[in-house]
Design goal:
The complex is a heterodimer of chains A (about 500) and B (about 180).
Chain A lengths: L1 H45 L7 H11 L7 H10 L4 H10 L5 H8 L4 H25 L17 H15 L2 H19 L16 H9 L6 H13 L4 H12 L3 H35 L30 H12 L2 H23 L4 H8 L15 H23 L3 H20 L3 H26 L4 H23 L2 H24 L2
Helix pairs in contact in A: 1-3, 1-7, 1-8, 1-13, 1-14, 1-16, 2-4, 3-4, 4-6, 5-10, 6-11, 6-12, 7-14, 7-15, 8-12, 9-11, 10-11, 11-12, 17-18, 17-20, 18-19, 19-20
Chain B lengths: L4 H15 L27 H15 L6 H19 L5 H22 L5 H21 L1 H11 L26
Helix pairs in contact in B: 2-3, 2-5, 3-4, 4-5
The chains are: A mainly alpha (about 500), B mainly alpha (about 180).
């Protein structure tokens, strides 16, 4: 049993780190840009200084930037040093991980897109409402550090951004991020496998409360949270619990809670958490009935939260080998690039923080004059303009990334054909492990198909939504029959899935 | 104790305490962990079956005020109609016709819930069902095509095991649902 617990912890920690690495990288870069390019004044202006609209601006910026609740940590540490009000910082910290362009697009193709719009509106109420009350209660929450001297234009300014990002990656920010990761890994130890499958059923009035109890240590990237919402709506689970998952699961983690405590003290942090939990629960119960998907047959369970529970049952044999195999299979090579880059930045940061505690590198970057005399046609672009362009570039890159991540339907359908053959072949060959693995990928591609079509047509008809939903429902039924090892049912479902795939192709290629 | 450690321990302990109740139960092995999707008994097997059910259940309501349960089942079948139609061979325009008819039928049922059906409702229901029935042959197009192929003597002895590579033959006993 101990072996199961240890490997569960390690597997969940590693899975979360891999999922988080691109978002943490984005957060480190944004922190460097705020510090070295934007500078204090421009950043404060971007966040509305201490004006009434600062909370709204923080929410808007958070919605646009592709950062998760771990990646936001270096950014809010920079904002804290710049003297922004606590409410604004915490509002940004909560809003940034909830949505990004990629996840909003994904969300809009769910069977209940109105739910995503409602959730976005509710998140605005949560962050602005809680932030406003908190700022009223604690008006003197800001604190500023001395502003670092500016670095002159050129390569050194770019290097200064890297140094700032590396200092975060190998310093306190990394510690807070680690605490967040440990939080979600601990859930994987404490919660037995599959123990949350019935906890958020649509007819369970305690579902939002139950979700509140586990959501704070939960870590979910914006995309993961959105796909979990999709699964919850597909199973007619509690929409209130889904909102709690988005607001607290994606928006918070233990590292953030701990940072808040360290920065604002116990009383203020408790007030924030109390207000936050109160408003989130109130909204969750408010949307629970109106957003319930009545057209869907309740499934009495969901697999959306299996990834927060123990990955193995207590009778698992050789969990170490299972964990390594699972990691090897579930991690695509593309996911390793941001992880490697994060590793490099972490190593650089550790070296800097260990061997240059006094900031000699920064002083050299700040003080050494440029050796080259500027040429006549050289134009020195002010840092804040470059910073703004870099931030807009980050947003644009994430939008362009959408088109790469969600290919056109014809390409997706080709991929789906390959995955279908693998999944159904494994199902017919009595290979449950392979079948389950490929069915999950198949399900994922069916979602990408919808988003890909939506991105190119800017609409997705009910007809196309329902065709994709039917395929997913049949895939899930097949997964259950594979668990039950009912051969006759498996054969019938294989035939049904094949037919649904054919209809899906006709719908998305010939009937768009 | 370092000022960094105390809050850390408190936060972690609070998190563990919050999640501990959920950790006390749960399946302990793969065998304990079999999940089902419960399909209601009154859910029709396919589009054709649903249209038949709508007709017969409406007729059985007659002029009497409908009981809550029977009305609820009728409502469910109407709500399932778009899904069942989408799980058939109907084309997009035909499916959209079904969706439109579903809204019309839902309107009639909601009026029925507040009283008895009027003559106009009865007429509208009959017309809607007639429209849905016209689509039944198209909803079943693929299966009928496969059945025709299966009747050709040269192919009669072929193995009808479904294959994962696309147009899988359908076992004769399989229903649309």
């Amino acid at each position: 049993m101990t072996e199961v617990l240890i490997w569960s912890f390690l597997l969940r920690l590693t899975q979360s780190l891999i999922a988080a690495s691109p978002f943490i990288l984005a957060g480190l870069i944004v922190a460097g840009i705020f510090r070295r390019l934007m500078g204090r004044e421009s950043t404060r202006r971007l966040f509305g200084n201490s004006s009434g609209r600062s909370l709204l601006q923080a929410w808007g910026l958070g919605m646009l930037l592709p950062i998760c609740s771990l990646g936001v940590i270096p950014v809010i540490r920079e904002l804290r040093g710049m003297g922004l009000r606590g409410g604004t910082i915490l509002a940004f910290a909560m809003a940034a991980p909830l949505f990004n362009p990629l996840s909003v697009l994904y969300g809009l193709t769910l069977s209940e897109p109105i739910a995503i719009l409602a959730f976005a509106f509710c998140s605005l109420i949560v962050v602005t409402g809680v932030g406003m009350v908190w700022d009223r209660l604690f008006p003197d929450s800001s604190q500023s550090e001395p502003e670092p001297p500016t670095v002159r234009a050129g390569l050194k300014r770019i290097a200064a951004i890297g140094v700032a990002a590396a200092r975060h990656a190998g310093g306190r920010s990394a510690l807070y991020i680690l605490i967040g990761l440990v939080g979600v890994a601990m859930l994987g130890v404490v919660l037995p496998a599959g123990s949350l499958q019935h906890a958020v059923n649509g007819d369970n009035p305690l579902a939002p409360l139950t979700m509140t109890a586990i959501a704070v240590p939960v870590y979910a990237t914006p995309m993961l949270a959105m796909s979990q919402l999709g699964m919850m709506f597909q199973h007619a689970n509690s929409p209130g619990a889904a909102f709690v998952l988005l607001a607290l699961g994606a928006g918070m983690n233990l590292g953030l809670v701990f940072w808040m405590w360290r920065q604002y003290g116990l009383r203020r942090s408790a007030a924030w958490m109390g207000l936050l939990l109160g408003v989130v629960l109130l909204l969750a119960y408010g949307v629970d009935r109106p957003l319930y998907p009545h057209a869907i047959d309740p499934a009495d369970h969901t697999h959306a939260f299996d990834i927060y529970c123990r990955p193995f049952y207590s009778d698992a044999v050789n969990p170490g080998a299972l964990a390594i195999e699972k990691l090897r299979r579930d991690t695509s090579p593309v996911e390793l690039y941001p992880l490697a880059m994060l590793g490099l930045l972490l190593a650089a940061g550790l070296l800097l923080n260990l061997f240059d505690r006094t900031g000699r590198v920064e002083r050299w970057l700040e003080a050494t004059p440029q050796t080259e005399a500027p040429r006549r046609l050289d134009v020195v672009v002010p840092g804040p303009i470059l910073g703004g362009v870099a931030l807009i570039g980050l947003v644009v890159a994430s939008i362009v990334g959408c088109y790469a991540y969600y290919p056109p339907p014809a390409e997706v359908l080709e991929e789906m054909n390959i995955v279908k053959a693998e999944a159904l072949g494994a199902a017919l060959a009595d290979d449950p492990e392979q079948a389950t693995y490929w069915i999950e990928i198949y399900d994922d591609w069916s979602r990408k198909l919808e988003v890909g079509a939506f991105l190119r047509d800017w609409k997705l008809s009910d007809y196309h939504r329902i065709k994709a939903r039917i395929l997913r429902e049949q895939l899930e039924l097949l997964e259950h029959e594979i668990e039950h090892q009912d051969r006759e049912e498996i054969q019938q479902l294989v035939a049904r899935v094949s037919r649904s795939q054919g209809r899906l192709r006709t719908a998305f290629i010939e009937e768009r | 104790m370092s000022p960094f450690i105390r809050p850390l321990l408190t936060v972690v302990t609070a998190a563990v305490l919050c999640t501990a109740p959920a950790g006390c139960s749960g399946p302990e092995s793969d065998e304990d962990h079999l999940l089902e999707h419960v399909i209601p008994e009154h859910k029709p097997d396919g589009y054709a079956d649903a249209v038949g059910e709508l007709e017969s259940r409406w007729t059985s309501l007659g002029d009497k005020p409908a009981g809550t349960e029977r009305l609820q089942e009728l409502t469910d079948i109407v709500d399932w109609l778009p899904e069942l139609a989408a799980d058939s061979d109907l084309k997009r325009a035909q499916w959209e016709q079904v969706q439109q008819t579903t809204q019309q039928l839902s309107g009639i049922i909601s009026r029925l819930q507040t009283g008895t059906a009027t003559a106009a409702d009865r007429e509208a229901w009959a017309q809607a069902i007639a429209g849905l029935q016209q689509l039944v042959p198209d909803a079943d197009a693929l299966r009928r095509a496969v059945s025709r192929t299966a009747q050709v003597p040269d192919h009669a002895d072929h193995d009808h095991q479904p294959t994962p590579d696309g147009d899988a033959p359908i076992p004769p006993a399989e229903t649309e649902q």
